[in-house]
Amino acid sequence: MKHNTFALTATILSMSLLTVMAGAAIAPALNIIQEHFSSASPMLIRLIVSMPALLIILTNFLFLPISRHVGSRTIALWGLALYVGAGAGCFFVHHIGTLLALRALLGVSVGLVMPLSTGLLAYYYPPEEQARLMGLSAAMNQMGGVVATMLAGILANVQWNYAFLVYLLGLIAMVLVALFLPNERLGSANKRGVPFQPRQLLKFHPSVVGMFLVMLIFFVYPTNFAVISAQTSGLSVGWITLIMCALDAVAFAVGLVFGGMMHALRRPMKYLAPLFFLGGYAILVGSHTTLAALVGSCLIGLANGIGVPYLNTIASIKGGRNSATTVMPLLSMALYLGQFLSPIIVGPLATTLFGADDATSPYKVAIILSLIYLLQTYTTRHFQSLPPSD
Q1: Which of 70, 112, 187, 283 has the fewest CB atoms within 10 Å around its CB?
Q2: Which helix (H) or strand (E) holds 267?
Q3: pLDDT of residue 390
Q4: DSSP 53
Q5: Residue 196 lies in a domain
Q6: Of 245, 109, 124, 271, whose CA–CA distance to 184 is shortest?
């Protein structure tokens, strides 16, 4: 059955608008939130950004059995309702434990929506269209980041908890899903397949490990940029918000032209993300001016804007029509595992390697991780061309 309509595409892409907001949307307000919860440890403050990732991972384990018994529209509506309730519900909270609990529920909601936001593109559209659509999905993801980051920064200037009202944007996607998304049971075509078998992980490990590294490296930025910039450069919340929005804007622009980039830069494309990560974090370490913060942030935006759709495209073509219930949950798990573990790994590692007094030590760890990502890309993809259908 063909569902190649504008309404269906817009509906699927509307879910992509929301997924990045699970963690990164409130990053510009993190410094203000830290001031409000001054008695809480810095690790708990960072977990406000990364906590949703843990529950996204756990929810992805259940996505295949859920998709066998529940239609995609129903899953999306459940997820989006919880997204709005748990996300905006933080507005009313004044205890760090309750706040983290709601952030965990937000993770459950994104764990239901995330595989659909990319997997439905592989389900409804042929392989030759998937590079363009995965680029658009990444662009919508970043556009959601731009809008949400800007709104969160503006609202945080009113009061710290106002930043969480950005999650009301999920109501727009709820309306589109209710009107236009078919209620097909995606898992019914994959009754015997289990996406978490070792053989599946072995089959897709270059993309899965790559996605984990992309997020491990990228999330050094939203969990540290506001605090480090305030310390080293004295940037205000307004400047921090604008610079972080510039990152999302660059990644959005990349998503719009991603299909053309995949066609024009077939062989070097795989190396661009790790190289841009290297350059971006090196600039942030080497200079503390506003211009350096902007340029470094834009390079990190380029890396993220290329890395995520590249890995999604390669994996979805390899996974075929069942991608929504096989490889996409794996990629979603890897993506959010990287987000969750980033502050847990990078913070202690930065202190151990570079000392507690080095404000830019998280960026230096990101440089090391970028080199590891470059090596992983070379060893798993150096002799691998893009699929012929690209």
Answers
A1: 70
A2: none
A3: 35
A4: H
A5: yes
A6: 124
pLDDT in tens, 213-237: 999 999 899 888 888 988 888 888 7
| Helices and strands per DSSP (H, E), number in the chain | 15, 0
In CATH, what number is assigned to the domain containing residue 242? 1.20.1250.20
Point out the residues of the chain with pLDDT beneath 70.
1-4, 20, 22-24, 28, 187-202, 321-322, 324-325, 382-390
- Residue 389 in any domain: the answer is no
Would you give the distance in Å from CA 71 to the centre of its chain?
A: 25
Between the alpha carbon of residue 174 and those of residues 64, 77, 274, the distances in Å are: 22, 6, 35
Domain of 109, in residue numbers: 6-381
110 touches 19 (CB < 8 A)? yes
Prediction pTM value? 0.74
Q: Using CA atoms in the order 288, 292, 293, 299, what is the torsion angle rounded to 10 degrees?
A: -140
Q: Rounded to the nearest 5 degrees, what angle is found at the Cα of 175, between the Cα atoms of 169 and 178?
A: 140
Helix (H) or strand (E) holding 189: none
What is the number of domains present in the chain?
A: 1
